[in-house]
Sequence to fold (385 residues):
Amino acid sequence: MPKLTKRLVDSLTPELKERIIWDDELGGFGLRIYPTGRKVYIVQYRANGRTRRKNLGQHGVLTADEARKDAKLIQADVARGADPSADRKARLRSPTIKELGKRFMTDHVELYCKPTTQYDYRNLLDKVVNPILGSIQVSEITFEDIATFHLKRQSTPYQANRGVMMLSKMLNLAEDWSLRPINSNPTRRIKKYPELQKKRYLNDVEQERLGAVLGQMLQDAEISRYVFAAFYLLLLTGCRLSEIQKLKWDYVTPTHLELPDSKTGRRRIPLPREACQLLQSLERREDNPYVILGDHGESHYNDLQKPWRKARTRAELTDVRLHDLRHTYASVAVTNGIDPFMLKEILGHKNLSTTLRYAHLSDDAVQKAAGQIANRLANRLGSIG
Fold:
């Protein structure tokens, strides 16, 4: 068969069966003619020991000369180790980001992460990531896609940054699962937005004011003895909210709270004398294993945020979150000379850097320390004026 040209291809007529006409100038370049009369340019090559064919385009959309150029480019890619037909099939089989997210949850998050982390990941997927990226195929997602997602979420920088972090983990796993080439993660080099860290803790006056308000609310029966105890225990132990809210009597010893599980695994929390006395004042219910009892039923107090909002408003501390009581514990500890490494163990942190973020020194303590430094230097320098 001579060289495929427009004139020749136009003249070829269909037959009862599909047939292929090969070009005699470029090996592997041909024309497939269907019984319907449809004519499609193809290229044939060998990759990984197998013969493959790839459609280049329909005659009329492509000319013979354009199809020949495309065939040469594909043959050059094959010579460098590519397999265009297999790559296309892989792309067609590639899951979307939404589908990858489902596998990420079942095959990774639910196996290795705590329930609270699972909840956070599921929220990020459903409310932050999927609405923008969910329909994009895993094999096709690019740096530009991730950067656009990050930009669209700039009004909520914390969510935007956490979304990129989760996507990074998901796409690393996609590489492990052979859904993307190794070292192709497009989340690299995404510059995170600055996050304003909430450095809030109670100073001495605020602590006294909160104590007075809680005492009055208990006396007026606006909160139960258990709610009162929960707020005090958060301050006296530096525990996380869930660790106190879901505390069981089985975990309480005369000297420690022995938690079988927490955000960072098993924890042994020192129980100071004041906290121990407070626990001893609480009445136990035989059919309820929890320390902080709900108003009825066999479970713990379900929503401590509601009484907390009332208490903080009464104490003029409307910007203080329950988690800030843990900040306050850390701040008081550092201000009173507790070694950060020891505080890390008390708070149950995996990394010292986390402890140092919690341990915000009060303005008075910083001012006092700065004055002591300046005083020593001034004594050595002599008279200033």
Q: What stands out?
A: Residues 97-176 form a domain with the DNA polymerase; domain 1 fold (CATH 1.10.150). Residues 157-176 form the longest helix (20 residues). The beta strands are 19-22, 29-33, 39-47, 50-58, 256-259, 267-270. The chain has three domains: 6-91, 97-176, 204-366.
